[in-house]
From TrEMBL, chain A:
Signal sequence, renumbered to the chain: none
Cofactor requirement: Ni(2+)
Designated name of the protein: Uptake hydrogenase large subunit
Family listed: Belongs to the [NiFe]/[NiFeSe] hydrogenase large subunit family.
Assembly and oligomerization: Heterodimer of a large and a small subunit.
UniProt cross-references to InterPro entries, sorted A to Z: Ni-dep_hyd_lsu (IPR001501), Ni-dep_hyd_lsu_Ni_BS (IPR018194), NiFe-Hase_large (IPR029014), NiFe/NiFeSe_hydrgnase_LSU (IPR050867)
Annotated keywords: Metal-binding, Nickel, Oxidoreductase
Functional note: This enzyme recycles the H(2) produced by nitrogenase to increase the production of ATP and to protect nitrogenase against inhibition or damage by O(2) under carbon- or phosphate-limited conditions.
TrEMBL record, chain B:
One Gene Ontology molecular-function label: peptidase activity
One GO process term, biological-process aspect: proteolysis
First-level EC class: hydrolase
Annotated organism of origin: Xanthobacter agilis
Keyword vocabulary terms for this entry: Aspartyl protease, Hydrolase, Metal-binding, Nickel, Protease
InterPro entries: Pept_A31_hyd_express, Pept_HybD-like_dom_sf, Peptidase_A31
Enzyme nomenclature, EC number: 3.4.23.-
Protein name (database record): Hydrogenase maturation protease
Domain of life the protein comes from: Bacteria
NCBIfam families (UniProt xref): hupD, hydrog_prot
Biased composition regions of type Basic and acidic residues, renumbered to the chain: 185-200
Record family assignment: Belongs to the peptidase A31 family.
Residue segments, region Disordered: 185-207
Amino acid sequence: MTIQTPNGFSLDTSGKRIVVDPVTRIEGHMRCEVNVDAQNVIRNAVSTGTMWRGLEVILKGRDPRDAWAFVERICGVCTGCHALTSVRAVEDALNITIPNNAYLIREIMAKVLQWHDHVVHFYHLHALDWVNPVNALKADPKATSVLQQSISAHSKSSPGYFRDVQNRLKKFVESGQLGIFKNGYWDNPAYLLPPEADLLAVTHYLEALDFQREIVKVHTIFGGKNPHPNYLVGGVPCAINMNGDMAAGAPLNMERLNFVQLKLQEAFEFSQNVLVPDVIAIASFYKGWLYGGGLSGQNVMDYGDYAAIQGQKKTDRLPGGVILNGNWDEILPIDPRDPDQVQEFVSHSWYTYGDADKDKGLHPWDGITDPKFDLGPNFKGTRTDIKQVDENAKYSWIKAPRWRGNAVEVGPLARYILAYAHGVPFVKGQVDEALGRFNSLAGTQLTVKQALPSTIGRTLARALEAHYCAHMMLDDFSALIANIKAGDTATANMEKWDPATWPKEAKGVGTVAAPRGGLGHWIKIKDGRIENYQCVVPTTWNGGPRDPKGNIGAFEASLLNTPMERPEEPVEILRTLHSFDPCLACSTHVMSDDGEELARVTVR
Amino acid sequence: MSDQGIHARILVLGIGNILWADEGFGVRVLEALDRDHVFPEHVTLLDGGTQGLYLLPYLEDAEGVVIIDAVDYGLAPGTLHILVDDEVPAVLASRKVSLHQTGFQEILGLLTLRGHTPTRIVLVGVQPERLDDYGGGLTATVAAQVEAAAAKVLKVLRADFNVWVTEREETPEGLLAAPIARDPYESERPSAEDACRIGDPRILTRS
């Protein structure tokens, strides 16, 4: 049976059903079911968040100034971006402007997080969807050296260097504890890299670990500690004293700032010489695999972020907006406060707004999170052991957010399509150059509009964004130094710290360009306490279920029409889902209603 | 043994999500250890939360590691259980009671690949009673084991790593941000009625 969705996709549920549960190498719990036709092409896709988070219940009644510390604990990956979004929401509600130093320090911290997250995602969560570490053992290190020298000026490029890594890898594999590389489908024909490229990527998998451990030291300096840096409503919790000493907990001084600058420069060089060239080179070997675009060819959204001047949205260095129907010539403005724009639907989610309002969309300020675990007439299995969900009924712990009723994709790819359409010079230069290199390596002539809306394009956009962040944070750093040298050492505005200065009721919204896409927190404050707190997170936008009209979301759309080499080995499904960097720790709201974890099946 | 430089680094790592009732056990035991004792310079107490790769640098720098966590051993709630070395990744792999474990198991694999495996890993675990009380603190059963677990950690530190602590006399700054330190987190939690955990249309009414 074929169904045409209002947003232009056709779904056919007649073929064999494959269940992947849990989807591995992501944060949180996710399940995916697809139907494939006789040729093993995916014709229907169903994305299910299998956990409930209960965040609203955690925050209600707490002090708004403390919310950041709670939301920082939601997830093990995106600590800082939730904390930042939270302080922005509270400052918006209470009309607090923060000192310029605080603004710049937060900007640097946000971009360090973005860079770190993107690098870790590519090498440690996503690369193994393209790279075969077992095949790297067959490589000639000389060939890897030639490949490295042909793609970038990275200094570590000698045959001996790659031979050493290969020997370490060999020892590791021979020890029988494949560990991190186990559960791979290493003889699947979906892997297309020659051994020398596999060895290159595995080598950089290890190098990236060294870089990720260095860059996070910036968070320790500005945030006081890691992995849970401190935030502060009104500014940042670190003082500046350029003549101070280096004692632990001492104010920022020149020595510390010099150290920060060094780390930012190292990050810039790594994304320039390793990350971006690697992604382009790997992509060129997959030039025929342009699947996975899904919704990104049509509808994309971001709130916009990285304003060059605090509070002036028009100076956003990654400007936001919405593009509908693939019309890159028209960018629609977005307003997170407008009750008609961002709305969450629960017709296909395990929540209820009451029978009368079951198909209604609610703006986050009026959001309701009331669980209703109801599996629908066509589900198979039991309530604690689901064999197959019924996507015509409720089937996910994720809500379905929509922008004016439209399903949209969010994330680095959405931001890059928007920035390209806005004509941001740095982004335009990056995308055009990357595509030129891809086309010359692959011998293709793809246009930006053909190449970007794809799984590969999504992965490329993330790498380019990491490098753009490295570029921007160096600018932020220069601005910070200039500001301090001009005599401004303020880092916090405490005028409205005392709740006695607050209105009886207030509401605010904070948005951030988080690693996985536009993140928003909506807060209502009453009598000095949190009255309602709703987070609409990127994976909710991308991984949410269908809406009342039947529009499918980004994850589901991205899997359609992708051929699978071997349906029992879902390399292609993982590749495309991982390209979104799914993080369900916060997007999903636990377990089944009796507290038991939902049953997990690997592949059927 | 006055020269600190000759000591191998020891990491005491509390992991788990404090927002999920007994999942916060590891972090809360760490907090208690920090509150009551002064540790030698070469011992690091780290609140690992639910982090994965962020923990790698700390683990790589450590010769010995003591992990404190809530682990589902299938025992009676509140039971303490100690595992060492090879038993540790195995238990973190086969039982999955919380979000962070996949990440942590992967970290141990990466340590091997990078040739930085600690010479000894000890896991002090507790059998949780409840995880799905979001925003809640430790259950009474598990809370009753915090001091016992802290004592076990100190015993392991003495026996396996020759680490001796002294009693702390001044109040420490605290390992966690003030609002989520155990006492304010648990004592300032709004009542179930105020926070609409019961009896309001917005709550967890089970249909």
